[in-house]
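pinging the channel bc i need a second pair of eyes. not urgent but kinda urgent?? the chain im working w is below, pasted from the shared doc
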Amino acid sequence: MRLIINSIILFLFVNFQILSQDIKSPSEFLGYEIGTQFSRHSQVLDYFDYISKELPENVIMEKYGETYERRPLYLTYISSKENIKNIDLIRENNLINAGVKKFGENKNHNLKKDIAIVWLSYNVHGNESSSTEASMKTLYLLLTKNSKFLENTIVIIDPCINPDGRDRYANWYNQVGNFPYNTNPKSREHDEPWPGGRANHYLYDLNRDWAWITQIESKARLKVYNKWLPHVHVDYHEQGINEPYYFAPAAEPFHEVITKWQRDFQKEIGINNAKYFDKNGWLYFTKEMFDLLYPSYGDTYPTYLGSIGMTYEKAGGGVAGLGILNSENKVLSLVDRVNHHTTSGISTVEISSLNAKELNENFKDFFKIRSDNTNYILRGNKDKLQKLKKLLDAHEIHYSNAGSNKTYAYSYQSNRNESLQTNSTDLLISTSQPKGKLVDVLFEQNAKLSDSLTYDITAWSLPYAYGLDAYMTNKKIIGGITENEKFSVNSIDKNAIAYALKWNHLNDAKFLSNLLKNKIKVRYNKIEFTTNGIKYNPGSLIIYKGDQTNESKFNKVVDIANDYNRKLNPIYTGMSEKGPDLGSSSIDLIKNSNIAILAGDGSGDRVSSLNYGAIWYFFEQEINYPLTHINIDKFNRIDFEEFDILIIPDGYYFSLKNEKNIGKIKSWLRNGGKIIAFSKALDIFSNNESFKLKSKSNSMNLTEENMYLWDEGYISYNDQRRSRISNMISGAIFEVALDNTHPMAYGYPKNYNSLKIGASSYDLMKNANNVGVIKNANPISGFAGKNTLSKLNNSMIFGHENFGKGDIIYFADNPLFRSFWENGKLFFANSIFFVD
């Protein structure tokens, strides 16, 4: 027995020596102790590259994408020599266990041992900076003193999910930080400037983008994530400077698809972490604040794909710098933050290694297909369906057309069971597939809440987000093969005096933007008309040959329409069969507007970086239309006469409400300017006698921006958050009655489902346009505090006020929220191009 033990010790010693020989620690490689400076993203990659070259049989680096600012995104795979040699086999075997891959030509999928797959994701929030530093130390320790865990574990490290945000923060701090660092919170090194390093290039929170994959980093990451589907996934964060360390188990509510095993093993991981934290005398907490409900987080999304998904949070964030004095008069240093994250990482790998067999078995069980499967049937606009299919393709969720079936199904629209005849244009998504649990999470009408106090929004159902009619049934549906619908290719019609296109989707706005960029004049109708037997709803685009400078420009419309997959209808006469003729005053030219947006902070004003980023992304990436960005602190010095439209994102605007600036705004509006205001920017105009907007409520408004006050520890969780929940709406869906004769609502039916993330409400305006109104304030989906509902009855959600020759457009709800609420985007496009 002693001989065997000595042999094991000798093996581990030799193995340690092989892995650790001659490799430098991060501190030795970089030339400074880890945690005493902020490393640039490129330096971190240099260290990972160095290790992969020194130990190529144990470490593989893989580039999986680039950011908008062209920084590379890398994963690193770390394991034993044998596991790295068989890494593709291990990966394929895991996908076979999940049922997403079948046995191929290589029949040798019976591995000799169970391999745990642990994925560690660092620095999704760029200014939560300690974890990227910890990733280097974790890599080093796994290959040296903890190499025994690699015998049955593959560890995947993403050292920085958000390099653009990381470098925005690190470069700023390296410029302004004191050496030695100043722990006084008043020092400027603890006052990170707008917009901060939290978000990516377009100021999107990548930790809320896992399911919606709107951003380039998320799209690249999801592709490689689907190739692995790890057993354990840790998402590293930082929280307020007065908080200790947080790790699993998570808080309630847990989504009901989460298994008992996932709950139990979270606890096991937490117990193992606690062992090391107790040994070091480090405080921590569990089971509070960070729940497992909203599906687009770095802990929940992996959980819904069979992983043990977890968030780890250490005190810090953008205010912490290299060291700061907290409320207990203790110095919170970057060195300590790095050590805590490193310890939890090694501990998680250890407990996963010790339970590799159980992880594999329960992971396989998670993906077993239920016998009581649910079928979701969706129907509606083909552009909306195509957009949804692209999302499903990215998640590798299977779908088909619904075929011809007569069934009984629950209708999301009528909230009752009814007879339904399906057809080949309907989309069928069944839970009878390996990712069936994720399908349920994304498509269910209402998520069941075990606790109404959640960390994020409580409603996201994709049929509402995409503006599609939805049905749900447990009856058997025989589907058919779904092919991407294609329009017939447009060709030049020599007899046409105009081409027309119905306005229904953001794709039409992209097409319009390109026409305007090519200096092609476009008209739109304010009243329905019929020509050549085709009825055109208000907002339809009309490209009249006589408006163009030459015939070749008119013919170019056909090429652009083909590029954007838009179906053009030729018009042969200016005299309509019904409704206005083409020369009517109710058919107007669309103005190619010069648009500005406010950004930044200063003088008591602060633009919501998240809403600003979503608008910026909308113009650059979604409709490709020019936008001029103006810093808010330059408002007094800017002559806005050259601009046709001013966009004011969500935010806090104290100086804009003073008499001088209100006078400037009113003068510009009277001369024909147009303002589009979002969310709390409406406070500039509400309850001011010059404008018609009146606020109904001063209830707690939990908007996208101030959700992060919870992260930063400025509000006492126990004393304030739960007591205020009755006055809050943290993300619920309400039915909105629309005046779809108004240009803001062109292309919409008479009702719209709006995602409301704040409790603010506004009276119906007199002598103005209440375009979208909540009449009955009972949420269709999600949680709303009881005190908010009565104030939402008969409240204005979308409005338009004429002011002199100008216009003010009010968005009480944000139709661009995280860019995933697809059905809301046309409101914004309408406001840009049609309201005049």
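so Confidence is low (pLDDT under 50) at residues 1-18, 706-719. and The chain has four domains: 2-366, 375-473, 498-589, 595-833. — does that match what u expected or am i reading it wrong
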